[in-house]
Amino acid sequence: MYNKEKKYTFKGVLVMKRILYNRLFIMAVLFIVAVAISVWFVQNVDFIKENWNKFIDYGFAIASSIGLLVSFSNKFNIFIAKLWVILINGSSIWTVMSEFKGNVTITDYNKIIKELKQRNEVTKITPLTQTALNLNIDGLHYELEFVEDYIDDEAEGKIICSVQDFTTSYDNSIRLLEKSIIPNIKIIEKNLGQVEEQFTFTIKFKGKNPFVRMITRKVDSKLIHTLWFTQSEETKLGRKDVLITEKSIKCTTTDISDFQNSSIDYISLIGG
After folding, report:
1. How much is the pLDDT for 249?
2. CA-to-CA dists, residue 242 to 79, 148, 235, angstroms
3. Please, which contacts does 217-222 make with residues 24 or more away whose CB atoms are closer than 8 Å?
4. Does 125 map to a domain?
5. Which of 69, 92, 94, 226 has CB atoms 3.0–4.6 Å from 73's, for a disulfide?
């Protein structure tokens, strides 16, 4: 159920994570640190020459500490994996789906289609059936469908909205979610009454899931034939289920705010 207050629920958390997980911010921090170290070395070159043996010892100590962190600290490894995903800004294949089930009618469906057309620059409309169509919005293909089932002789309607298999980088995925996908899902939500909701996104990586090594760090990869890892939790607003496989991450929530928080900052699903 749409609630204006929900958009403020995770606002502070989202803002903080968007700063910490922002590629330009991280690159700027790394650049500042590198410059600061370079300036210090230049200003203290004579001192370093006089005490070069101590600096070698310091270097070995730092290298040993990092080695211990890599070997024994899962949080450190997760941090490095997150940093790597952000910095390389690699492409992945996304699928986003939302379902609204309950006292939903074809009139609700038509009203939603009309508002989506009004609120967006729709470049193409492709009817699929009498109760399903594709809308091309922001270069994404939205498929919307109305389905009516009968349970104990009572009609129950369902609206399904999906955006299938769009390839995007880490940075661009955040932009598409914030500017297009989530606002359009909220348009559907606010036009419906008290209904059962489910929101899902799936990310397929081009290659191995970069977080798999965190799960199998102490397991011989030759012994692994099929990998999957699940995590379920009750949140303050609903339920969240996460499935991690060798090449993908899938998250299902029952609340739009949880979905927004998880999809925009999907790397936070791994290790918090």
Report:
1. 87
2. 19, 29, 13
3. 217/74, 217/77
4. no
5. 69
pLDDT tens digits for range 56-98: 887 788 888 777 766 666 667 667 777 777 776 778 899 999 9
Of 116, 258, 153, 114, whose CA–CA distance to 197 is shortest? 258
Residues 124 and 157: their CA atoms lie apart, in Å, by 26
The CA distance from 221 to 28, in Å, is 36
Using a cut of 0.85, tell me whether the model's pTM lies above it.
no
Rounded to 5 degrees, φ, ψ at 137 are -130, 125
Residue 178 lies in a domain: yes
Q: What is the pLDDT of residues 10-61, one digit of tens each?
A: 455 555 556 666 666 777 888 888 888 888 888 888 887 888 888 788 778 8
Quickly tell me which residue has 């469906």 as its tokens. 109
Residue type, 94: W
User: Distance between CA atoms of 87 and 85, rounded to whole angstroms?
Assistant: 6
| Domain extent at residue 222 | 4-12+88-98+165-269
CB 159 within 8 A of CB 112: yes
CA angle at residue 63 from 59 to 66, to 5 degrees?
Answer: 140
* Closest to 101 (Cα-Cα) out of 47, 31, 156: 156
Q: Which amino acid appears at position 1 of this protein?
A: M
